[in-house]
Amino acid sequence: MKQEELTFNDLPAVVGELCNRIANMENILTEKLSKQHEVKENTHVPMTVQEACAYLKMPLSTFYYKVKKDDIPVIKQGKHLYIYRDELDRWLEASRKNPAPQSFEKENESMLASHRRKPNHKNW
To answer: Less Cβ crowding at N or C end of the chain, within 10 Å?
Structure first.
């Protein structure tokens, strides 16, 4: 629909098309806004020792051993231990043998930072 080609007779069709486009844009906006305001799951939820063991699929004795070594982040309330799920997830991620893949730039920076070179005595 070009502006030069419009005539007075085309006006009803053009207005109808514009109304359809506006309605489509309103639908898209409402979808985007509803996705923005979706309630995300709260992962900062305290878990008991039994729930944490079930979550980690770990025996109770191993769990207490790791707590004693201060490996697992726990909160002690009286005689009870509590663990937050998000802290447990961060602990799991930090204790990976193979870290999560990084971008090429970050991987290159970490590789350069980890290698130390001996000074070249010829240039002194």
So the answer is: C
